Please model this.
Amino acid sequence: MSILVTGGAGYIGSVTVERLLGKGAQVVVLDDLYRGHREALNENVPFYEGKVGDRSLVARIVREHKIEACVHFAALTYVGESVKEPERYFENNVEQGIALFGALVQAGVKKIVFSSTCATYGDPEEIPIRETEKQWPKNPYGWSKLMLEQVLEAYDVGHGLKFVALRYFNASGATEKLGELHEPESHLVPSVLMAASGERKELAVFGDDYPTPDGTAVRDYVHVADLADAHILALDYLKKGGKSEFINLGTGTGYSVLEVIETARRVTGKPIPYKKEPRRAGDAITLVADARKAKEVLGWTATQSDIASILKSQWDWRRRNENPFKA
Ligand SMILES: NC(=O)c1ccc[n+]([C@@H]2O[C@H](COP(=O)([O-])OP(=O)(O)OC[C@H]3O[C@@H](n4cnc5c(N)ncnc54)[C@H](O)[C@@H]3O)[C@@H](O)[C@H]2O)c1
Model:
């Protein structure tokens, strides 16, 4: 029996595949490589280059590999892009996600771990954010994820599908071999480090007039290896017959953009030139998790996620790997 990992050639997906293999699991990856890296995957992992919305391909994979559960990472993931081109987010994430879930249920696969996001909360009323907080996303990316959460819930009622929707806060950091390399890159941690290394002339800081202590947006950064481990625990939980759940993955501690820059200066010993830009449409002010439920339900807590270690791991990875996925 195997686990189907969609988006397994992407950042969080590839680290999860690496750690699943480390636990002796059998894994199959489906990714269209639009933003993933084939080189991020062990070459012995069965790999299908294709779209998650291709129902016949999904049905064939389930048949050929006796798939028992799916971890669904594949998605477009940029808040700013989703504001400018919402149709791509609804078509790629929602339309294709529904096709994937339909094909899985039809083929008898009724265990799904889904990559959701803190972006489904919009600007929350209470910090830290509990899973019971109202969900009202500020951008089409967040809506695309919330819509799929609701599809999963309906398929549980209608078809007995069991799922864990993991609402990640900000994934960041690197393992020994794998790190964050998006093209284009809009995530803060790699962007700050690109300014430190000179790959970027300067970092853009979007918004310095938010109602936060220093005026910049505050986020909860979680090491990618911690996130990956939560998926393995969620798969175990579903295998043991666990009921469907929505679970935050965060640390409970938030850092502002300026605090991340300051920590990166210390970790790298380099200056980090930045310029202040207006707020970016779709960005929330403060997103920090209440992570107690992950501990209660999955036995998960972040153990590698202090901000200096996150920055150092990504910095070291890039310095070790000049051209990480093309070497
Ligand atoms: N990075 C974060 O901080 C963060 C936070 C919350 C949630 N998430 C979610 O986690 C998941 C993984 O994020 P990531 O940062 O690793 O992104 P990523 O872009 O590195 O990985 C996504 C992968 O999915 C593939 N893909 C996209 N659409 C596809 C489709 N229709 N069919 C097949 N493959 C497709 C891409 O080629 C890519 O390899 C996403 O669902 C994202 O929304 C990420």
